[in-house]
Amino acid sequence: MDWEHGHKYYTDKDRLDILGLNAEFYDDPQSKTDYLLINDNGVSKVIRLSNAASGFQSVVPICVLTKFYLENDYTISVREKISETHNNYIAHNRDCSLFLEEPEENIFPETQYRLVKWLISAFNNSFDNSLFIATHSPYILSAFNNRIQAATSANDKNIAEIQDIMQMNLFVDFDDISVYEVADGEVNDIKNYEMQLIDANSIDSVSDIINEQFSKLLEYEGN
After folding, report:
1. CB within 8 A of 63, min separation 6: which ones?
2. CA 206, CA 196: separation in Å to the nearest integer?
3. Model confidence over 142-151: pLDDT tens digits?
4. For residues 132 and 100, is the Cβ–Cβ distance under 8 A?
5. Between the CA of residue 208 and those of 16, 73, 137, what are the distances in Å?
6. Distance (Å, whole) CA 57 – CA 120
7. Could you tell me the pTM of the whole model?
8. What is the mean pLDDT of the chain?
């Protein structure tokens, strides 16, 4: 239901940029088909969303529906077709809770970073809305950590320098987030309150094992 209405806000004259990936989404109401306009080294081409790479098929619905919930105006006809409770959320663009399950699926680490940046900007520019992410990706947690560190480091003296690295609307306050790991039937808080960061390594312990093995193998190089 939501996709049916949300994707229609983007036409060929009002396309939605997808994470700065040289791709813009739009719906063609005449053919009832969703398209991507791709800019490939200065050459533009149009492809059906259904024929696009799996990464685009993963992130486009996230971007379209996030904008649908947070930013667009909703006509009476659209609101009447959505349940009363749901309508209460989106009609005012407030008190909206968006749940994303494993948004990293099918997308490269760089695109995961872009997606986090885009989501933070969208929610920082909205009011009284909440974002919930279930993820196995250390890249997503690390991307949040950069934004938390920016907010922690910024002060009146260095704000200009900090904003040269990261725009202020991408800052994340450590106190505004909750982060939990589910392991062995237990739920554990993985916020590091001393460092004021997320313990992203807690879900990437395999990297330590791989690096340790590699270091041991290097000892035998040339022997």
Report:
1. 16, 18, 19, 25, 118
2. 24
3. 999 999 999 9
4. yes
5. 40, 48, 15
6. 21
7. 0.82
8. 85
